[in-house]
Amino acid sequence: MIKRIPLAWLNLTHDRRRFATSLAGVGFAVLLMFMFNGFMNALYDSQLQLLNRFNGEIIIVNRLRTNMFVPRAFARRRLYQARAFDGVQDAYAMYISEVNWKNPETRKSRGVRVIAINPDEPVLSIPEIETYRQLLKLPETALMDTKSRVEVGPVEPGIISELADRRIRLVGTFTMGTDFASGNGNLLMSDQNFLRYFADRGPEEDKRSFATVDIGVVKLEPGTNVERMVNVLRENLPNDVLVMARDGDNGFVIRERNYWQENTNIGFVFSLLTSMGFFVGIILVYQILYTDVADHWAEYATLKAMGYKNGYLLGVVMQEAMILSVLGFIPGVLVSQLLYTAAGNATGLFFQMTPERIVNLLIATFIMCLVSGAIAVRKVQTTDPADVFLTLTQVLSQVSS
Amino acid sequence: MSKTQPQSTFDPPRDDLAVHIQHLNYFFGAGDLSKQVLFDISLDLPRGQIVILTGPSGSGKTTLLTLAGALRRLQDGSLRVLGKELVGLGDRALVNVRRNIGFIFQAHNLFESLTASQNVEMAVELTGNFSSKRDQAVAMLSALGLADRVDYKPQSLSGGQKQRVAIARALVNHPQLVLADEPTAALDKKSGRDVVTYLHNLSRQEGCTVLMVTHDNRILDVADRIINLVDGRLESDSTPNAFVHSKTQEAIAEVSADMFIM
């Protein structure tokens, strides 16, 4: 059995305090990458929170609605037409509007997004709708998103405030989260109440009615081929509406994500910040490894004189790099997890740490440490062991004399 | 001035010599900046001898030692170590030669993170004897009187003990040639004496050749030969007694009445 002395591990861990500091350094670099990457993903993922709750396989929107921000509605007739096709179980209407909500405590008005549905139809996968169905049917009632920003004031049942300058009562809450189009929060109400608030808001505003719908959610019979059904609806419905599958590469959800990726600087800014974290990490780890090499200069040189090849020393430094990357990653992930929760609570954005993202950053950390190791090891490699001894002997003879 | 013998003659290799140096020249640097540090050195070290290399600072002692230790590439002359010609060898071949040589340095150069035994085992691992490395290391440390310090780390060992661990590391693979650079310089008188005595005994038992650079007059008596190097040239090659005698004479001559008359 071949059991080498684990020189890399022993050298790293010999000085406990320095080892802890080193791991904290790597962990910090990992944390930076996680936070910047996390914010980027959170901004994208948050846009999809409402979309992922649509309870249907096919989505129908106005052709001009390139993203959720565009307030373009389409004729409700299209949904009735869609229902006529074999394989379509039902087609639900969803009404969306932006309007001011008055914070009951500060009396300041803030824009919120109102989402209206027929409470008797399973349009959205939000269990609270079922819970509060009867209350939602009462006039001037609504549910408020608990992840709304703090500016909207307290979010709890029983709050009475004003929506579009009209009295409203919160009968319950649900949990979803904000996105770019939602303003300060989400309010969920019945379609009947929607008419009460938005049918006639004055001469300047659009008059809403049941004749137009913002988003159509088509529920298919179980076992129906979604792609085929999308094609059938596309061919048969007039061109004013866009028919898309909800999921899939050409789906509605991906389209929304792509819109924000292609039309904002989020990706560029946060990728830049993430790579800055990466380079900070390279410098940190290089510093750690270089200090180790410099401190053990004479010992490593002795190994070379004894007959160890450059490859062995390279291996030791690389092993140290890998130990640092793996062990530094763990505290980095754990602290990031805490900060994700904190940031999610503070912003209402949707921070999620998926296994894929963790693996990606682990690989990045790995590369980070290997690059640092490769730079640090060059010094050991290119030096003639005899030169090291000569310098060392001279230095020591000066010290001792 | 450097190439004094354009037609250098080289003797054939001899098995009874551990180190066989003929007409060796060595330069630091290259091109216009090159500076010659060793001039036409010819030197034979028979097997089993303890040879002390001495001379003033900058005379090229350590350079000669590193050349004999296959730590530098050589271009000119002939340097045979344990029957292997080093002149013209590449880095990889030099590494293999080094494995047959034990090095002892002024500083112990032990890994603080490893125990005494592990430091010695690092040398054994080079031979591939992974199963017996611990036994070999403990045996060698015991031979040097460190049986009860096997699992101590260097920071809990005295200076002399650390140097003995370093010696154990140099000798554990039973090298036929030991090169020592000021092994006693960092030690007090007694530890220095002990180290030299161990080196002497082990060399007699193992029959290995020891080439030692030192300024330490207290240990000259262990040597079979003393070689004096001045300005990169061999100045004298004599027995310890003759060397001490000549040095004393010189000293007396130097402290002559002339300097007071001035």
Name the biggest interface: A-B, 32 and 34 residues
Strand content of chain B: 15-25%
Which overall shape of chain B is indicated by the principal axes computed on the Cα atoms?
Answer: globular
- How many strand units of chain B? 10
Describe, in plain words, how this protein is organized in 3D.
The complex is a heterodimer of chains A (401) and B (262). With 401 residues, chain A is of the alpha+beta class. Helices cover 52% and strands 17% of the residues of chain A. Chain A has 13 helices and 11 strands. In chain A, the strands form 2 sheets. In chain A, strands 6-7-5-8-4-3-10-1-11 form a 9-stranded mixed beta sheet. In chain A, helix 11 runs antiparallel to helix 12. The C terminus of chain A is likely disordered. With 262 residues, chain B is an alpha/beta fold. Chain B is 33% helix and 24% strand. The N terminus of chain B is likely disordered. The chains are: A alpha+beta (401), B alpha/beta (262). Chains A and B meet through helix 1, helix 10 and helix 13 of A and helix 1, helix 2 and helix 3 of B.
